[in-house]
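User: Second chain of the day. Same drill as before.
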Amino acid sequence: MIRSAAVVVLLLAMIAIACLDSVDYEPYFNAEYFRATTDYWRQQAEKAKPVTGDLRAGFARTLLTPGIGYASNNPSKGQFKALPLAGYGQRQGRSATGVHDDLYVKAVAFQVGDRLGIMVAADALIIPRVVTDIVLEQLDRDLKLSRAQVYFSATHTHSSLGGWGEGWVAEAFAGGYQPEAISWFADRLAGVVRAAVADLSSASIGHGRVARPEYVRNRLVGERGRVDPELSFALVRQSDGDTAVLGSYAAHATVLPAGNMEWSGDYPGCWQRAVEKATGGIAIFLAGGMGSHSPVAGEKGFVGAERMGNGLAQACLDQLPGLSLTNRIAFAIAGLEITLPEPQVRISDAIRLRPWLARRLLPVGQRVFLQVFRFQDWRWVSTPCDFSGELALEIKDFARSRGFQAVITSFNGDYVGYVIPSRYYHLEGYEPRLMSFFGPNLPDYFEEWIRRLMVDSIHPTVEIQGEISVAEH
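Assistant: Same format as last time:
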């Protein structure tokens, strides 16, 4: 008996040694992944140099709503026997039962001189990496577009198409894997980018923002934390009068509960429809810093989504007539492939799964993308995650202290979980425990590079150290 117990103990010890490791708290600026990213940016920084000239812009949209069954007679909708809704694990991969409101993919292309960039957003939970890779392959072939030129985002509605994720974690949120869902999603995205580029013509742009704190709350720490209350927006008007409005807000698109089984854009879809009805153009919603931020709709279900979406739309529409539009702008694109730290899937504050095992659970590569589009004194910043609204506030404060404005958006064509302030890393709960995939240093690491990209879109630096230092954190 003693010998058997000893064997069991030995086996358990061997398993623990093979599968478990200590959590890495080494400062990011001392790590090899930081040095690798720094070396890469030294080679890329010159590409962030702005160009000044007359703006051309093009708009496009296309349906993303999947057809329900093969009986659908709408050729613009994909044909699926059944397709799950992505967003809530409680649905357990069940299929959508119908359409409450249509889903779309929309894009605005911007060109100044030889600099071309496209902002594209989908009524979707996220834009997964497998879809992004297909889209970029098509756009490189058809339009010679690089990764930095395509600015992805999603509305983060939890009532859009699933089936695009392979593996335990992805399928828990997006339902059973269906390769045809990936093809459908990618074709919609690539097609709308091509259409927006084909629509390029002389245009003007103006930016604004308005605070609407009544629609958002901090779900992680409540009143002890901060919220980002700003609805940020841009109005783009072509010379023939056609318009596009881009908007971003930080509340999660979770007004509709897990019990909803119909396709819907949630409150961002309501915002888009209301703005489009009032302006006659297109409206594009890009999810803001939604990490830790929940909606406060005032009502449940579709009534609440309409109430919140329409309220935010009216706040935006009230501001549009007062915007100053300009045709001649400084335009810059700063994109950077970020080397990630090792994954840190934790068992406790001190113990994590070894990276080889964590990578089997998390379908995330070793690099992701951060990106900045500069329009005059405004910076739109894309992130590959649920980026914290509290971190977004810090970045906005940093930008204002240097004389420009920042808008932070999430879900830029990859997904690395939640990126929340490091001070919350030890808390219990969904965001700090289950969804903080890459450890306590990722937030500061991302913030460092976002600041650098924003500054280098003003005047690129040859040596990366200087304008921003570790001490500024």
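Residues 7-12, 460-473 have pLDDT under 50 and may be disordered.

User: Great, on to the next one.
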